[in-house]
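We read letters as residues; the fold follows as tokens. A sample entry reads:
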Amino acid sequence: MEFQIKESVLVVGLGGAGCKLAINIKEKLGYDCLLVSHDARDLNHDASKILINTSPVLNPSAYLIRGVSFGARGSIEDKINRYSTVMIIANLAGKSGAALAPVVSQIGKELGKSILSFAIMPFKFEKDRIFFSGVSLKRLKANSDCTVIIDNDALLESNPDLTPDACNVITNSALSHVISTLKNSSLPLQTSILSTSKDISDVETSLRDSIKMLYEDVSANSIKNTLMYVVGGNKVPIGVLNSMVNTISGIFGNDSTRVSMSVTAGENSKVVLLTSIEGETRFDRYDPLGFIPKDNVLDWDEPDASIKIDLNLDQIE
């Protein structure tokens, strides 16, 4: 089965990066958007917004942001309930994104909405964020009909000369490109990995770099479907495009793996792969206990949170 976007659509941006991408999608596609963050600077735009007010704490933990967000649950429900499809964009490397993604996706699931989520994962050197992002992703996937994961760290490992900011620009551009094509395509009801490359003139080299990025996250035998976007492909010879499809079909040698291509116009050329997978990814190892089967784990229905209580006591995490 495949996930198909149903009208009407609400794009929900969580945290700084999520809000920026949601605004970009709103301007490109005309979808309504909702911005949610604990930082008022992320909400400086003419769009629906909800501030998770953690005042007077100046540097709140992700657990505190999540706890305070439960007080805004009614406002979030009111915004989401008007729409059929909820598209959640969250940077799980940031405190707001990782804190709010499980909460907002759970609200959408309880309201019976179709949930499509996009999760941006942290760089490996951001060690203090790895565990929390992994747990947040696990809950986000459980609440979503379809989840697309963007791993900045895999791009950086494939291109060690890039700066973190350059990685963010490249992956955000690829994410925006994929979302802008969803009106005319569908996604498998599985977890998908988004991989890409720098803007380069040789699309075959770009394909190689995209596959290299993908292999940082998954093994070849877990790949089930691959959609290859060739940006600027309208200027590429047909023979080269055919060769690229044959190449990727040969690499993903499983007979059940389906490979398809989408050619779009663009000033620069690059390949973006949207690959549906089954089985384990590197993100499952972000939570050391994540490999334990769910039926053998005693877990709370609500994600871990620190509730702000107005007592004359220090906040203890």
Remarks:
- The radius of gyration is 20 Å.
- The chain has a mean pLDDT of 84.
